[in-house]
Amino acid sequence: MNFGFVDKNNMALLTDLYELTMAQVYFDEGMNGRATFDFFARKLKKRSYLVSAGLEPLLYYLEHLRFTPKDIDFLHKTGKFGDDFLEYLKSFRFSGDLYAVDEGEFLFENEPFIRLEAPLIEAQIVETFLINTMQISILVATKAMRCHSVAKGSRLVDFGLRRAHGTDAGMKAARSAFIGGFIGTSNVLAAEAFGIPAFGTMAHSFILAHDTESAAFEHFAKRYPDNAILLVDTFDTIEGVKHAVETMKRMNMATFKGVRLDSGDIESLSKEARSILDGAGYTDAMIFVSGGLNEYRIKELLAKGAPIDGWGVGTELVVSADIPYLDCAYKLVEYDGEPKMKFSPEKVTLPGRKQIFRRYGSDGTLEEDIVALHDEEVEGTPLLRPYISQGSVVARLPSLDEIRRKALENFQKLPQRLRDIEAKASLRPTLSPKLRRLTEELGGGAIPL
Amino acid sequence: MNFGFVDKNNMALLTDLYELTMAQVYFDEGMNGRATFDFFARKLKKRSYLVSAGLEPLLYYLEHLRFTPKDIDFLHKTGKFGDDFLEYLKSFRFSGDLYAVDEGEFLFENEPFIRLEAPLIEAQIVETFLINTMQISILVATKAMRCHSVAKGSRLVDFGLRRAHGTDAGMKAARSAFIGGFIGTSNVLAAEAFGIPAFGTMAHSFILAHDTESAAFEHFAKRYPDNAILLVDTFDTIEGVKHAVETMKRMNMATFKGVRLDSGDIESLSKEARSILDGAGYTDAMIFVSGGLNEYRIKELLAKGAPIDGWGVGTELVVSADIPYLDCAYKLVEYDGEPKMKFSPEKVTLPGRKQIFRRYGSDGTLEEDIVALHDEEVEGTPLLRPYISQGSVVARLPSLDEIRRKALENFQKLPQRLRDIEAKASLRPTLSPKLRRLTEELGGGAIPL
Pairing between strand A366-373 and A430-431? Predict the structure, then answer.
C-alpha cells in the first residue's frame, strides 16, 4: 500500500521522463552551455491580470534538489541511462541563477514571471517541477484577488481544501488565497506551515448528530463562546436563525459571532436573517455565506444589497474553476550566448534574456509595461530581480504578510479597466526597440504576438 | 523557507479546522456513538458515468493517521482545544470500518463510492482528507476513460504533470489515468512509486539548443535508437518530418519509432506526415500527437481519418478541464442507530446504511443499479465491499494492472448510450422499497432527487 507522497527525498523524480532523457543526450554530447529559460503566460483568458505566487516553494525546490540513491537506483533499472550520467546525477545540484518577479506582483500576457539561467542540463531538468509549482499558485492567487476586488471589505476565507486537487494543491491554494487578499483558511496544516490564520464553523453532520438544532448550537457555543458561527440551513434556514437566536438568549451569551448560510436563496435569506438578528439585539452577529461561491456571485449578492459580512469560498477558488489552467510555458530563449526562438503556430516565443520595466503615472497608476532585453536602458521599474545566484538564495524573502500587503497595494495601482472582473482584455506589454528588432530578425519579419 | 510538503508525519493536520473543533465538542459532550457517512456525487454534469479511483491512497491514510507531538503542539498553541482532548488525540487511531466500491468500477449519481462507519469523532476528522483524495482521483480516471472510449485502440499517455495542480495532483493523475486506460505517464516518480510505464519524447528546447533540427534528431536517436520520437514542429512541421526521415536514413537506423506533432492543423499535417514516412519506407513509424488534447478533439481527429497512433494528453486530462470538480459530498446518514437526512434545498441526502446492487442483462450489459438499505435482500451484485475492518485493511488490494484491466472490462459492460462522450444523462439508480420508504418517512413526503 502506497500513498505516493512527494517530499524532499523524492522530488527530483517528479519530472517528465523526457527532461532526463534529453539531459542524458546533452551529457553525451557535452552540451551543457549556459541556457536561459523564461516562464510566462501567453494570452490570458477570462483574466485581466495574473498575480505572481509560488516562488518560495520553487526556491526551496531549487536549493534542495538532489537525486537520492533510491532515485538513482530506479533510473538505473529503467535501462535508459548510462552509468556516467547517473554518476553525474549523484552529485547534481542546481548551480544557476534565478530572476523572478516578487510574489504578490501583477503580471500580464507574455511577461516572464521567471528567468532562469543555468547550465543547460540543470535548466532542463527543473522545468516540469517549476511549472507544476507556479501554475496552480498563480491561478489561485489571481482568483482570490478577483474575489477580493468585489468583496467591498467583507471577509474572505479559503474553504477549499477538500475540493483542491490533492494534498499539495490544498496547501498551495491556502497560501495563494492569503496572498490574494483572503484573511485565512480552513486548512489547519497550512495554518501551521505558513502561519495563516485558521477559521471554521460547523458541518451539517454536527447538527444531524444532535437530536435538535438548538442542542447542537448550545454545545458548540458552550465550548467556543467567542467563536461560534452557527450553521442554520440543515432543515430550514429561517427557523435555524430563530433557533440560533433563542439558544444564544437562553445561554445568556455575551458574544454571538454569527450564522452561516450554505444553501437556498441567499439574497432574501441573508436579509431576513439580518432582520431577525437585529431585532433580537444581535447587531454585531455576522452573516457568513458559503456554497458555490465565486467572484461573480459575491459581486452580484453585494450589488443586490445582501447584508453579508463574510464568505467561505471553496471549490471554485481552489480549482480556479472558470479557468483551471493557464496557457503558460517555460521556453528556451538563449543558449550559449545565442538568442533562441520557437516558431510553432500560435506558440511563438520572444527571444533573448529579458527584463520587464513598469511605468506608473503621476497618481501612481500602472501605465505601461515594457518588455526589453535585460541590459537595455529603459525607463521604468525593473520587475525581475535576482532571487538565486549560483544555486543559493540571495534575496531576503518577505513574510507572507508582507507579500499579501504588497499584493493589495499593487491592486490599488491597477487602472480601473483592469480591475473589473468582467474586463475583456489584459494589458499588453510594449516590446522595446531592441527586443522588437531581435524578434523580427530571428522571426524573419512581423512579430506574431 | 518552506515548501509545505504533506507527508505521513503531518497529514493529520491536513484537515479543516471545523473537523477538529466539532470533534472537541463531541468529546466534551461524550458524543462518540457509531456514525455512518456516505461519500457520493450528486447530479453529474458533462459525465454519463464516474470511474472509481483513489481508494488505495485513502486506505493508506486511514491506516497511518496519527497526530504527532508536533501536531499536538501546534493545536495546543491555537488555544482552541482542551488538554484532555489533546491527550485523546495523542493516541488517536482510525478504528472504524470502510466499505468501498472497487477502484475501476463505474458509478452514477447518488451512489456512494464509500460508506464509512466509525465512532463519530473519527468519522468526522477524516472527512476533509477523504474528499481531497477521492475527488481528483475520480475526476481524472473518468476523464481518462472518456479519452480511451474514443481512441479506437490508439495509445494514450499522460503528459500532464507540469499542469497538474501541484505535486500530489501530478501523482494522482498519473495513477488515475492509468486506471482509465492510458498506457503510461511522463511522470518518472509515478513510474517509480506505482510501477506505471514511463514515456517521453523531446522538447522544443532540445531542438533549439542545437544548431539544426537534424543535429538534434541525430543526437537523440544515437542514444535512444529504439525509442526516439522526434518532435517535428519547432520551425515547420512538414520540413521537420523530412529532416527526421533524412536523419534516420543517413544514420541507417533499423528502427524509426516515430514523430510528434504538437501544433498546427493536426488533421492535414498528420496525413502529410504519414505519406512522407510511408514514402520513405517507414511504415512502422508512429505519428504521435500532443497539444491541447481532450476526448472531443481525439474523437474528431480520428473521425476525420487522421492517421494518429498515439496521444500525449496533458493539461485537460489532469485538471479535468471541462469539469474541474464534482458535486460530491461526505454526509452523515446514520448516527447511533438512527438514520439521518439533510434537507437543504438541492442538497438532500439519502438516509441510512446503504448498499448498491447492480443488475446485468443476459448479454452482460449493465441494466440497473438499485440503491438499497445495506441489509435489504435485493437481487444483484453488491458493489460496496469491506476494505477496512476495525481500522485494519482486510481486503486483498489488487495491483494497478488488475484495476486497469477491470476498468476496461467494466467499460465494455456499459450500455451504448452511456459510452457516448456527448451523452446528456447518467444512469439514475433505482431506490429500493425500504430506502424509498425511509426517505419518505424522514423527508415527510416526496423524494426530491
Answer: parallel
Is residue B409 packed enough to be buried (19+ CB in 10 Å), middle (13-18) or exposed (0-12)?
A: exposed
Per CB-CB distance under 8 Å, the chain B contacts of A397 are: 1
CB contact under 8 A, B393 and A80: no
For residue A425, the number of C-alpha atoms closer than 13 Å in the C-beta half-sphere is 5
What radius of gyration, in Å, describes the C-alpha atoms of chain A? 25
| Alpha carbons A179 and A194: distance in angstroms, whole number | 11
Contact criterion met (CB below 8 Å) for B314 and B158: yes
Strands (E), A18-154: 34-41, 50-51, 97-101, 106-107, 114-119
CATH architecture label of B11-140+327-443: Alpha-Beta Barrel (3.20)
Question: In degrees rounded to 5, what are phi and psi of residue B164?
Answer: -65, 155
Average pLDDT rounded to a whole number, residues A189-199: 98
Whether the predicted model's global pTM rises above the 0.95 cut: yes
The minimum CA-CA distance between A106 and chain B, rounded to whole Å, is 21
At the top level of CATH, the class of B148-318 is alpha beta
Q: What are the pLDDT digits (tens) for B385-432?
A: 999 999 999 999 999 999 999 999 999 999 999 999 999 888 999 999
Q: Half-sphere exposure of residue B206, counting CA atoms within 13 Å on the CB side?
A: 31
**A171:B4 CB<8 A:** yes
Q: Which residues contact B264 (CB under 8 A, 6 or more apart)?
A: A344, A345, B233, B237
The whole-angstrom separation of Cα B365 and Cα B373 is 24
Instruction: Kindly state the cell numbers that stand for B67.
Output: 497526530
Which residues from B are below 8 Å from A177, CB to CB? none
Q: Which fold has domain A151-318?
A: TIM Barrel (3.20.20)
Share of chain A above pLDDT 90, in %: 94
Determine the pLDDT at residue B349: 82
Could you say which of B175, B206, B234 has the minimum Cβ distance to residue A344? B234
